[in-house]
Amino acid sequence: MTTIEVPALARVEGEGGLFIKLENGRAVEIRLDIYEPPRFFEGFLRGRFLQEVPDITARICGICPVAYQMSSAFALENALGIKISPRVRALRRLMYCGEHIESHALHIYMLQAPDLLGKQSALELAAVAPDIVKNALRLKKIGNEILKVIGGRSVHPVNVCVGGFYSWPDTASLKALLPDLEWGLNAAIDSVKWAVTLPYPDLEIDYEFVALHHPEEYAVVEGEVWSSKGNKVSIADYETRYIEEHVKHSNALHGRTADGNTYLVGPLARLNLNHEQLLPAAQKALKDSGIKLPLKNPYKSLIARAIELVQFYEEAIELVKAYQPDGPAHVELKLKAGEGAGATEAPRGLLYHRYEIDENGLVQFAKITPPTAQNLPRIEADLFALAPKIVKMPEAEATLTAEHLVRAYDPCISCATHFLKLKVEEK
Amino acid sequence: MKIAVIGIGQSLRGDDGAGLEAVRQWRENYPETASRSEVRVEANELPGLALIDLIHENDAVILVDAVRSSSKAGTIHRIGPEELSAFTSDSQSAHGWGAAETIQLARQLNPALKNYPIKLIGIEVKQTTIGSGLSKEVRSAIPLACRAIQTEIEKFL
Lengths: 427, 157
Hints:
The complex is a heterodimer. Chain A has helices spanning 41-44, 53-58, 65-80, 86-116, 122-128, 130-151, 171-175, 178-195, 238-241, 267-274, 280-289, 301-322, 371-390, 395-408, 413-416; strands at residues 3-6, 16-23, 26-34, 160-161, 164-165, 210-213, 224-227, 232-233, 242-245, 254-257, 338-346, 349-357, 363-369, 422-426. By secondary structure, chain A is α+β, with helices and mostly antiparallel strands. In chain A, a hairpin with a 2-residue loop joins strand 11 (338-346) and strand 12 (349-357). Chain A is globular and about 65 Å long. Chain B is an alpha/beta fold. Chain B has a single domain (3-156), classed as 3-Layer(aba) Sandwich (Rossmann fold), CATH 3.40.50. A five-stranded mixed sheet of chain B has the order 2-1-3-5-4. In chain B, helix 1 crosses helix 6 (136-156). The radius of gyration of chain B is 14 Å and the shape is globular.
């Protein structure tokens, strides 16, 4: 019996391992063991006042705190029957642009590109292509600056509240970002041109893609939950079609559709389902790239991220230009007992929250379904698809190939626990 | 001359919070130095790539962080820019860049930073399991770390 074990995957957020069991050269079992400790956020939100929820859930992730703030705020606003103003909605979209920009720039250049280019890390990439890495850091930093202006700081920004924002950000500080944003838009367009030249391994998977869809915009903050298999449900009905289950080897729950199938959330799903809603520069970048949709190669999620980088820079420019704070930054809350669900598109995919609150605004029940938990069964299934190739490789190469695939997903295990080591066992 | 004193660590991982605690106590014990206009004091769980910006925004950087080598717990290391590359991050996080790798990256991207003054005050850890609170050995070494910070900063001021 042979075992291949990757005790901890590098460049993946959180702690987990990969285990592959081979029998007569055939993979019979593949598990992503998630041993990042369970985090119990849903448990300790119980009894907290609803206005604390956005800032508590933001702490689930240092990369996408805004996503947690947004999904929780929308869910709790739905529970209270509150409608936010169009200006607040626009500012939420802008803040989300900042998060998508910094997260995508990091993943494209610092986490996944080194794999495709045969480099061990971004450090090695920086040694041969310093200008690429310099641009990447600048692209990322501009996203952070948006978060800083709106939320006071770039990591775990504050200011989002149930009902809107605690205060309007300073107009001059936001408008001052425009020259950097214009530079970023051009650099993002160049990122797409560069992304299509990278060598991607061949792997086509017949995914069920799932993402929010909105008829008038590239859905991020609101929409209907659309599946590439034709299913459409409202956010309120999400749990009737998408369920989470416990599996023994993982502290993260696994997401499946109600009929037991795996599905994929994230940039590939969004681009494939929502490309018609891209803004003009992003549309043009997609067209000029010569990419045919749907994209079904998990490694090519890098290209999807690059096109989205154009989208989010373009959108940020529009929103900053239009920014005009006027009226109250938030709706005054009238407390009542209720239940509400909210979903937004985090950088890694659909992030769903549901809360029940009592008449004093105290949380009675919380459910948080992060993107990585939904993608985990799909990553395992992809590794099965890759297995016939892996088993013929020497151990070190097999490990690296499996790691590349997992990293292409940009999984965020810390968020999902409720993540990687590769272990291959051969009989 | 602008100098940044940056405490790095995760206070919920036992001795990993040693750097944060040392900077906090140094600030309390040396208020005159800590409050000077050219001194910027930061406590940061994980500065990651933002450390590159801190390097560019200041003329010198003193990092105070927990380290693990083969020394006795509580040993204070004073590590210069060259030896720093021998330390690697044991962070399991893809997104968290260790201080040593980040400084290496900053230098690779900007050769002018070759002689940038950076000093790491490293505090040898005993345990970094989940839970707050420093071990006895590390706690009793914090005053030594404070003096080391003060000695290093006086060289720049």
